[in-house]
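1st attempt posting a full record on here, be nice pls
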Amino acid sequence: MPTSGEVRRYLAGLASGTPGTLDATSFQTLLTRGAVAGTLAAPTLTPVGKHVLAELEVRAYRADAMSLDAVADQLTRVLNDLDNVAKTAEYFLAELGPVTPPEALPMLRPVAVGLANRRETPEELAEEFRNIWGSVEVMGGDPRDRLLAAALLHAAGADMQRIYSPMMATSITVREAVGPKAPAVTVAALLHLNRDAADPPPYEAYLKLRRSTRTEEGAAMLASSGRPVDELLVTRAGILTSLSAGRAPSGDEQVAAGYLTIAGANAQVHLPRVAELTKSLGTRFTAPIVAASVLGMLDWISPAELVNWLDKASDLARSRKLAPTPGELAALGLTIVLGLPPSEFATSSATQIAPLLRLANVVAVNAWVYGELVPAGAPPRAAVRA
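the predicted structure (as tokens):
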């Protein structure tokens, strides 16, 4: 069986009109699979072969030494796994839709995919989420705010008996200080999730940070890190300067800078990845820099392969009719990609994701990437139809 690298180089030669050499057995394998046509002496590249070449080229950095069958098996295995995630998300939408207020129903979609990424028993996950939703439902305010808070509490495995009363008190304080339209329940959840209920939440740090951040959620996330405010602002300012390249920063860049600060981005490692991904994402997202930042922190996968998986995941979301528009499907694809199993990637050096980064991902996808696509107060729309 030829290696992935041998096949990739041979097919690339056919595509460029400068065919190389390949042994007869390997050529027969490609012929049988429809990647080539003709004879070993006069081969031609087929549409199937062009697709195979594209798949191999985007994975060459990690898969060249693998056998062709091993790469094919891995792709099939991961795609089946991701399709199961999309299928499970369908289940959560059906189970949790009836308990979600109509105003928040569109935002249940990324929450459902995030739950499915847990790859745990769907029935138990749904029951856990219902219980958490029952607790935050009485905290008042925008239903979308409460839904995001519930997703954060579930992602953190919060003890609702311990956190409920302090969160309620903080959410009231936030509304009094910031206004009734503030996402007070989400802010309260973020301020309490990284500490013991006996500790005071970093409320004063949040108030200072919100003067410089674009979103309330971003200020709360930064504050919940426990790092000094001045240090956070200096780090964020440095990242923002890099992202905006001396221009007046856009809102997308401002939000991304806060996210990357929380994520612990390395300027030499992650910012070039974010720049490459931003270009590669094209028009898939209305806020591509935030999306690129979230993807860029998956640093055990190359930017090109991440975009490849994003498109595959978006197609799975479309086939499962999880959302009505291309932008929303791309956002759900992003959420699915966040659940890619690191063990499937030969170059993986991934460790357990830090709790605060896990929460930052939930906020980034739900409030910023997906939330930007569904204006507050927008009526629920039917899922896309084939």
